[in-house]
Structures are given as C-alpha cells and as structure tokens.
Amino acid sequence: MTVIGLDDTDSRERGMCTTFVAATLAERVEAAGASVDRRVLARLNPGVEHKTRGNAALAVHTDLDPKRARELAVEHLDLAETADPRTNPGVVVAPGEPSAVPDAVAAFARDAVRDYHDIDDAVALADRAGYEHAHAGNGRGRIGALAAVGAWRAFDDWTCECISYRERDRWGTDREVDRESVFAAADAASPDAWDTVDRGEGYPVCVPRTPCPILHGIRGDDSSTVRGVAEAIDGEPVASRALFVTNQGTDAHLRRVDGFADASEGRAYRVDGKVVAEPETREGGHVFAALRSADGETAEVAAFEPTKRFRDRVRALRVGDRLTVCGEVSDGTLKLEKFAVRELVRTEPANPECPDCGRSMGSAGAGQGYRCRDCGTSADGKVAVPVERDIERGWYEVPPCARRHVAKPLVRGGFDAPVHPER
C-alpha cells in the first residue's frame, strides 16, 4: 500500500480545490492500473492563518508503487493555483499501510487539527519516516500533506462527503442548482445526512459560493446516504463525483481544559464555567457574555453576527448559569460553536410582598430590612421569586450556515445532555 498526501493547492481568489486535485489524482492512479481504497479529507486546525477556506488536507490510499505514485502526484501539482503567492503546495508519499504509520506521524496529524506545525518540523519528520516529498513555493503544503498521511491512524470518528464537480467551462460562473430539489433531498435523508441546508435561513449550505470546481458537497454518516442525496439534486450537469471519508463533523479540533488559563490563541477548547456578567449585544450585532472557569479565570465568549439565531440563545443567559462552552480562542475571546446549559438560575431576588395587603415592601433603611408603608409589616430581606427562562438545559449549536467543517452537529448524537439541534 501507498499513501499519497497533498495540501495547499487552492486559492481564495483564483479558485481550485484540493479535494478536486485529490479526486483527479485518484483517477490517474486508477488509469495507471492501480486500485484506490479510499480518499481521505482531513480538516486541520481552523484557526490557522494561512488556510484558504476550510483548511483541508487530502490523502489517496492506493496499491500503486510509491515511486510511480510520487511521479503522478508531482505531475498533478500542475493543477495548483501557484500564481497566487499564498498557495504553496506540498506532496508526501508514504509506503505501507495507512493504519501502520509511525506513532510520531499519527501524533503530528492529531496536533495539526488542534495546534500548529512548522514546515521544517514536517520535513524533518517525513525524512525520518523515510517518506518521499515534493513541493512548490515555500512548500507549506507539506505540513498538511504529512498530516493527511497520518490521519487514518490518528482519528477514530469518520464521516463521509460526496462531492460533485462542475464541468470545467462553468468554473467561476453562477451555479445552477434547483433549490427545491436540494431541500427535498435534505429532508428525505435527515438526520443521516446533515448540514445540507439551513432551514432557518432558507439557504442550501451544500452549494459553495466560491469560484472552485465544486457544484455541491453532501455530508453524512454513511456513503450510500450522501451519494443518494447528491444524485437526487437537480441542476447543471455533473462532470464527476468523488466520495471521501473525513473527520468533518467530529469535533476533532476540540481540546478539553479545566479553565481559561490553559487556553491559547488560535486553538479550540471545551471548558466549563459560570456566567458572571449579563450578555451584551455590541456593534455589528455580536453578542458577548463573560464566563468564569473553575480556575478563577474570566474570559468573554461570543456569538458573532454570522451565527444568526444562535445569538438569541446567548442573549437568554443570566448571571449564575453554568455552562460548557466549545469554540476557538481568538484575540482572547472564545468564539462559540456550541454550548451546553448545565444549570439554570431559576429564581431572582425581589422585594418581599406584604402578607396583609399584597403590595411590595420598600426598604426600611440601610441594614433594617423591608417594611410595608401602609400596613407596617416588616421582613428581614429580599426573597427569591421564580423567573421564567427562554432557554432549557442541554446543548445548543450554531446553525448549519455558520458551522465549521470539523465541528460536530448535534444530530450526530453522543452528547452528554439533551440536545436542541439546528436544522
């Protein structure tokens, strides 16, 4: 067996897509008489500055001879948008079974989703493992390529994506996709296929808005479901389709920490805390709340405007609520992807009512409790009264239109509290 890893072939402005490069490379491998066991789409750290869009790295698992695999992969880098100086493709070719990569390579892949790597570290590790590699530009893509090589051993939770590609002469033009067929196919396959549409926004999430070769990408838990949804969507002709196994929708990027003192910039965490300041809506419609973790550190958590109706969930919080929050730390603020309400404040302090007339008592003076000015009755202090809440215990998430590729949708299950999925 041989694993071909590749990364950083696309451009934010000029288009292309590394999944397309991998899919067409797999076609060339098969044309050379070899078989392809699988195509792997590994989403890496979404906080990396140099990413293009979803920070995807790709791998092709094949029985092609490693030397011939390297030749084909290097030739195939011609598809990379190297006219963009920020596109720096890389290829790593590893002989052997994908599940038998060295421990260090698997650890490198896990860290690539949760942390950062240097080019020199990737090259040194590839050399120690005896892997062939090639690159263009500064070769930053070798980081993702090596991570893609190690991904199959690094992760246990895998999902699927069926990607349909456009005819080449349509690249960069408006996509022709029948909206009604997208929503009908999504409804029929839910919840096994997820994030196909955002029903709240009336938006087909599976259809990109970039000048890349993709017509639509369908995500779900098994290959037959995602392929069936893709085939049920009407629109412009499909040039080709490719099925990928992927760590999308798995929360592989989240790291559990005890408190905000252990959280660093550009990384994603799961942390428990208590709301210590009322939520505040700021300029641009972004909603912020302050949370104190068990270590005594306080940090702001935020639901930004693109998360749409999710912001109402944050606005519904009150001081004293206990939460588990998930998201990336950026500029000292944790950008919420989902959160769980563990405990809700159910009462609030209020002036006591007079037992005789039922009116609210007023303060009798500093340290003197409360008194009814009409009846003369008194009480020692405020009383707890029930408060209605617009939120319940359990997990809440951003809508599909705002979800990061690697973030796990609630419909996939496995959460430790009731879930309130977005559709």
Shape: elongated
Order of helices and strands: EHEEHEHHEHEHEEHEEEEEHEEEEEEEEE
In this structure, how is the largest beta sheet organized? 9 strands, mixed
Compute the number of helices: 8
Nearest-angstrom radius of gyration? 26 Å
Q: Please indicate the percent range of residues in DSSP E strands (runs of 2 or more).
A: 25-35%
Order of strands across the biggest sheet? Answer: 5-4-1-3-2-9-6-8-7
Structural class: alpha+beta
Spatial separation of the terminal alpha carbons: 41 Å
Count of DSSP strands: 22
CATH topology of the largest domain: Alpha-Beta Plaits
Question: Could you outline the blueprint of secondary structure elements for this entry?
Answer:
Layout (H helix, E strand, L loop, with lengths): L1 E6 L10 H14 L4 E8 L12 E7 L3 H11 L13 E6 L7 H12 L4 H10 L3 E4 L5 H14 L4 E8 L12 H11 L3 E2 L19 E7 L2 H10 L5 E9 L7 E3 L11 E14 L5 E7 L4 E6 L6 H6 L6 E9 L2 E11 L3 E4 L11 E2 L6 E2 L6 E2 L3 E4 L7 E4 L21 E2 L3
Parallel strand pairs: 2-9, 10-11, 13-15, 21-22
Antiparallel strand pairs: 1-3, 1-4, 2-3, 4-5, 6-8, 6-9, 7-8, 11-12, 11-14, 12-13, 14-15, 15-21, 16-20, 17-18, 18-19
